[in-house]
Amino acid sequence: MVLAGPTAVGKGTVAAYIRRHHPQVWLSVSMTTRQPRPGEVDGVHYHFVDDAEFDRLQEAGEFLEWAVVHGRARYGTPRGPVERTLALGRPALLEIDLAGARQVRQAMPDAFFVFLAPPSWEDLVDRLIGRGTESTAEQEVRLQTARTELAAAAEFDARIINDDVSRAGEELVSLMFDPRSPGPEDMPSGAGPRTDTTRTQLT
After folding, report:
1. I need a labelling partner for 50 at 20 to 30 A (CA). Which of 29, 34, 107, 195 fits?
2. How many other C-beta atoms are found inside a 10 Å radius of the C-beta of residue 9?
3. 202, part of any domain
4. Which domain holds residue 16?
């Protein structure tokens, strides 16, 4: 399962909830060239590497997906751990950005793609500014990116509103384990997301 959504929507927080409460789910740990934020632990939240190491892995074809995010740092999903986990039949969750999700769709079209959305645009702005981890200039860049990312929700198989972390996390896990979840062949032509828990219209 691939979880994506706009910046500051809380993808990492939902993934952390699943890590704590559902250890049977394997969570992929992405690599990034950005610096750690306060409280982030190398190997748990991300694998923090320098540009030279990222270049080496990229050239060796070691990424399932990678992208430059917000025009600055690079992020990537190591291919090997994902493939080994799937080969063991263990449920795997990738928490990545929109560009990465699109690459994974090309590489693994059978994956299930979930879009994590904020209750409203105002809520997303408040989250980004309130966390205080970016400069004013970077906040503006991320908000511009977020508008584009929100418009991509229809590309996903399901959409979950992150109005409560525990509820959103449990809903995501239920989609991973519910055998009644319909596959792509069950969707009518031109249909939107299979699961939509929207409560507030995004503007």
Report:
1. 107
2. 26
3. no
4. 2-196
User: Which amino acid makes up residue 196?
Assistant: D
Q: What is the pTM of this model?
A: 0.77
Single out the residue of 181, 191, 164, 190 nearest to residue 91, CA to CA: 181
Burial 29-38 (b: 16+ CB within 10 A, else e): bbbbbeeeee
Along the chain (203 residues), what's the average pLDDT of each consecutive run of 10 residues? 92 94 95 93 93 96 88 90 94 92 92 95 86 77 86 95 96 82 36 40 32
**CA pair distance 183, 200, nearest whole angstrom:** 26
Asked whether residue 40 is domain-assigned, the answer is yes
Contact 124, 16 (CB under 8 A): no
Both tokens of 187, joined, read: 């969707």
Which candidate, 92, 35, 24, 23, places its Cα nearest to that of 64? 92
CATH number of the domain residue 167 falls in: 3.40.50.300
SS3 52: helix
Residue pair 44/1 in contact by the 8 Å Cβ criterion? no
